[in-house]
Design brief:
33% helix; single chain; nine-stranded mixed sheet; 9 strands; 6 helices; alpha/beta
C-alpha cells in the first residue's frame, strides 16, 4: 500500500512538470528540446533516485571504443566506473555505469518513436565488461542491460481507439518477442513495459492523478538496485590499455 505523503509529493511534482512543459510549449520556447529534458529530470527523476545515482545526457561508450547516439537522459552511477564529463550533465558514460537510457519527447509521434528505436538498436552493439572473474567461483555473471525507455508529455494520437502500444507494434516488427524499447510512458495515455519472462506487455492505465507516471517512475526506481548489483566489479583498466598482445612475458 502506498504512503500518502510520498504519493502526494510525487503527484505534485508530476503536475508541476506538466505545467512547466505547457508553459514552455505555449510560448514557443526556442530551446524546447533541452527544456523538456530539464523539466523531466528536475521534477520527475532526480528527486526519486537513490543516493549515488545521477542523471546525465550524452553518449554511452564501451571498452572497445564504441559510442552510442546522443541520449536525452542516462541514469548512471559513478561508483561502478568513472565518467568523462564535459559539463555538469553532459558527457560520455561507460556502459557498465548506465542503467536507463530515456528518450524524453514533447510529443509521441511516429518520427520520434522511430528515432528512439534507432537509438535503442545502437545500444545493442555495446559490449559490456564482465564484473566477476575466474576466482569468483560459483558466481555466474548475468548482466542486466541498459533499459531503453520512451517518455512523452503529449501524443499525436487522437481519440481513445488506438493506443501508444498499438502504434509501437506497427513500427517495431519485434515488439512481441524482443522489442527495442522496453518501457513506454505517455502522460494521459498510459504506461507499458515488456515482461521478458513470458514475452508479455503490461499496461498501467492513466488516471486523473497521473498514476501512469507514478507507476512508470516506480518501475524505474524499483529495477535500479537489481541492475546495479548485476554489474559486479568491472575493471577500468580495460578502457585504458591498448589492445591485448602488447605485453611480453619475460624469461
Amino acid at each position: 500500500m502506498s504512503h500518502d505523503l510520498f504519493r502526494r509529493k510525487v503527484i505534485t511534482r508530476i503536475k508541476t512538470a506538466i505545467m512547466e512543459f505547457t508553459d514552455a510549449a505555449g510560448v514557443g520556447h526556442p530551446f524546447l528540446k533541452g527544456r523538456i529534458r530539464e523539466i523531466a529530470l528536475d521534477n520527475l527523476f532526480k528527486p526519486l533516485l537513490p543516493a549515488g545515482f545521477e542523471i546525465g545526457t550524452g553518449k554511452v561508450i564501451d571498452h572497445k571504443g564504441y559510442q552510442s547516439s546522443e541520449i536525452d537522459l542516462i541514469i548512471y552511477n559513478r561508483s561502478v566506473l568513472p565518467t568523462i564529463m564535459y559539463s555538469k550533465r553532459e558527457g560520455l558514460f561507460p556502459a557498465e555505469t548506465c542503467f536507463y537510457a530515456i528518450e524524453v519527447k514533447s510529443e509521441a509521434n511516429p518520427a520520434q518513436i522511430r528515432d528512439a528505436i534507432a537509438k535503442a538498436k545502437d545500444l545493442r552493439k555495446i559490449q559490456y565488461l564482465p564484473g566477476v572473474y575466474e576466482h569468483d567461483v560459483g558466481k555466474p555473471h548475468v548482466i542486466t542491460l541498459i533499459i531503453p525507455t520512451f517518455f512523452a508529455f503529449t501524443t499525436s494520437l487522437k481519440g481513445k481507439g488506438r493506443s501508444e502500444l498499438d502504434r509501437y507494434r506497427e513500427i517495431d516488427s519485434n515488439s512481441e518477442i524482443d522489442p527495442c524499447i522496453r518501457v513506454i510512458c505517455v502522460i494521459g495515455r498510459g504506461y507499458w513495459w515488456f515482461r521478458s519472462d513470458d514475452k508479455k506487455w503490461v499496461f498501467h492505465p492513466p488516471t486523473p492523478d497521473h498514476d501512469e507516471v507514478v507507476d512508470f517512475l516506480s518501475g524505474v526506481i524499483n529495477t535500479i538496485p537489481g541492475s546495479f548489483m548485476s554489474r559486479g566489479r568491472p575493471r577500468l583498466g580495460n578502457y585504458l590499455m591498448l589492445a591485448e598482445g602488447r605485453s611480453v612475458v619475460l624469461e
